[in-house]
Write a structure and sequence with these properties.
heterodimer; A: 290 residues; alpha+beta; Alpha-Beta Plaits; 4-stranded antiparallel sheet; 10 helices; 4 strands; elongated; B: 273 residues; alpha/beta; Rossmann fold; 2 domains; 6-stranded mixed sheet; 8 helices; 10 strands; globular; disordered C terminus; binds adenosine-5'-triphosphate; binds magnesium ion
Chain lengths: 290, 273
């Protein structure tokens, strides 16, 4: 019973603390909100770019060109071999006739040129689609290297440069977001730690009184931690609202861009709550330890 | 008091060096249940420091302070909280929460002890009536006179029915007339069974009441007008004795708690539930 009472009173104290909003807190919430907005913009850009690149990457094929005049069983052996890779999702055999037909279609008006050919210069080939998770330059390069040594295989090609460039771009964005994230999150902890420290100092008479009547550390510090978490949440919500508005404006010029999913936003807000709580925990521990 | 006399708070060979100029030296005294004791001495004699050791805001360099079942040589932060819920403390400067009503100021002491709101409300009428402030329960401290503020502080101090009340110059900020009122209130509380240890530099005040008085000068007890226990109890006690005494104390309290539950007039058993 007493633990429940304590919980209730601590909650009371926390809400009492929140009701006593001060101008300095509003300013720091605005500053944090805008820092978080910058971070969110970067992450949203990254999200959209990596989605575009992911989609493109999924369309990437590894082409295995076969020697001419192979026996059917050699071709089948290659096919089985290809299916043996864990990273391969599907394999399509493209006979040289079909390849020529596709070539002709692609040329369109100039297809008369093809008709003039006496022999078909194109080889039989396999088109490999990779599993989504393995659509990386590294994995494509790895299997291409192996397949190239097989009997009956003339050549293996894939959009090496393209894939690798895409990966580099995404990696660059990730690194930027990561660095920026660390900087912004650390400053959130720092700023909240500071505003809560001021709040502690202005309430230190009350803290001393609570100590005198036998309040536990928990009873004293939880309301401050609550205050810090609350500031984190408000800053995060502010940032999300600002981002949403900019998204609405931006998507008029760039239709098709995506926004964060709801669970991602919830996670972000929760993270900011945790950061705020951590910041105020630091401040109050420092004060109580003195 | 018909009850047998026993020590509820004791200081045993306490020494504490505070600065180059000031040291508390080999302090010994005990307070029995229901006793009223003045701790007198000139400014700077070490009264406040001594009281601080008793509510364990500071630790002695050597010697021991034992209050109830709490022993200064084995205190942790959490046991300090428990100790303070078992004693009442009053200061010269009232130390009230400025942004809360009289009711809330008193309730806070009961809340940190984990007592339920319905119980708090039920007992508040009695507590505030005893200090004569029931009609001002929704006022904030700023709207009260000094004497009234001190009454609130005293109400808060007795809210958990402590066995001892520590008062550091409780009338230091009050005029003679209000001082008399506050002293009367403290005696009234004392006659209800709560021991009071009152520190003051006001010798006149002490003389006019003729209670047991401990004189402190320059960090030493120079006179104790009415030692309750002589002889071997004045030694600081070994660990096993501490444990035995703490156990006895606990047993007695729990026993008492059951007996007197009907009157609702006892300390709550440790833990609370
Ligand atoms: N934290 C401290 N550090 C160093 N010296 C201290 C500290 N606290 C108190 N003192 C010194 O200890 C001595 C006793 O102080 P204390 O406050 O206990 O006296 P007091 O008897 O309560 O006096 P008063 O009647 O003025 O309240 C003083 O000389 C004071 O300067
Ligand atoms: Mg003093």
């Amino acid at each position: 019973m007493s633990a429940f009472n304590e919980f209730k009173y601590i909650l009371d104290e926390s809400f009492r603390m929140l009701r006593r909003r001060k101008a300095s807190n509003i300013i720091s919430v605005i500053i944090m909100g805008f820092s978080l907005l910058v971070l969110l913009i970067f992450i949203l850009v990254t999200l959209n770019i990596s989605m575009v690149i992911d989609n493109a990457r999924e369309e990437m094929r590894v082409y295995v060109y076969l020697e001419n005049g192979l026996d059917q069983d050699v071709i089948e052996r290659v096919r089985t071999g290809l299916y043996n890779f864990d990273s391969v999702r599907g394999v399509v055999f493209v006979p040289r006739e079909e390849a020529l037909e596709r070539f002709r279609e692609r040329l369109g008006e100039g297809s008369a040129l093809v008709d003039d050919l006496e022999t078909n210069p194109l080889p039989n080939s396999f088109e490999i689609r990779m599993k989504r998770a393995y659509s990386t330059g590294e994995e494509m390069g790895r299997i291409a290297g192996k397949i190239g040594d097989w009997d009956g295989v003339e050549d293996v090609r894939y959009g090496k440069d393209w894939v690798e460039r895409g990966e580099k771009i995404v990696l660059g964005f990730y690194m930027t977001d990561f660095t920026l994230g660390i900087i912004v999150f650390l400053s959130i902890v720092f700023v909240i730690s500071n505003t809560v420290r001021l709040s502690i100092l202005s309430g230190r008479k009350s803290i001393e009184i609570l100590k005198l009547v036998g309040a536990t550390n928990r009873y004293i510090q939880v309301p401050f931690i609550f205050e810090g978490a609350f500031q984190g949440v408000i800053s995060a919500v502010l940032a999300v609202i600002l981002l949403w508005v900019s998204y609405k404006v931006g998507s008029r010029y760039l239709p098709g861009i995506t926004f964060f999913r709801l669970d991602g936003i919830a996670g972000f807000v929760a993270l900011c709550a945790v950061l705020g709580a951590a910041g105020s925990y630091i401040a109050i521990r420092k004060y109580l330890k003195r | 008091m018909p009850e047998e006399k026993r020590i509820i708070a004791g200081i045993y060979h306490l020494s504490k060096r505070l600065s180059r100029h000031f040291t508390l030296k080999d302090i010994n005294f005990q307070v029995a249940n229901g006793e009223f004791v003045f701790l007198v001495g000139p400014s700077g004699a070490g009264k406040s420091t001594l009281l601080r050791m008793m509510y364990m805001d500071d630790v002695p360099d050597s010697g021991q302070v034992i209050v109830g079942r709490f022993v200064s040589t084995r205190m942790k932060r959490s046991t300090i909280c428990s100790l303070r819920r078992k004693i009442g403390i009053v200061f010269q400067d009232f130390r009230l929460l400025e942004d809360r009503t009289v009711f809330e100021n008193v309730a806070v002491a009961m809340k940190v002890s984990g007592r339920g709101m319905s119980e708090i409300k039920r007992e508040m009428t009695d507590i505030l009536s005893r200090v004569g402030l029931y009609h001002k329960r929704y006022e904030c401290p700023a709207a009260l006179s000094g004497g009234e503020q001190q009454r609130v502080a005293i109400a808060r101090a007795i809210a958990n029915r402590p066995s001892i009340l520590l008062a550091d110059e409780p009338t230091g900020n009050l005029d003679p007339y209000v001082t008399k009122e506050i002293m009367e209130l403290l005696f009234k509380i004392n006659s209800g069974g709560t021991a009071v240890l009152l520190a003051t530099h006001d010798v006149e005040l002490v003389r006019s009441f003729g209670q047991r008085t401990i004189y402190l000068e320059d960090g030493r007890v120079v006179k104790d007008s009415g030692r309750v226990f002589e002889g071997d109890l004045l030694r600081s006690i070994s660990d096993s004795q501490v444990e035995r005494r703490a156990r006895e104390f606990r047993d007695r309290r729990i026993g008492r708690g059951e007996k007197q539950d009907g009157t609702g007039n006892t300390n709550r058993p440790e833990g609370g539930g």
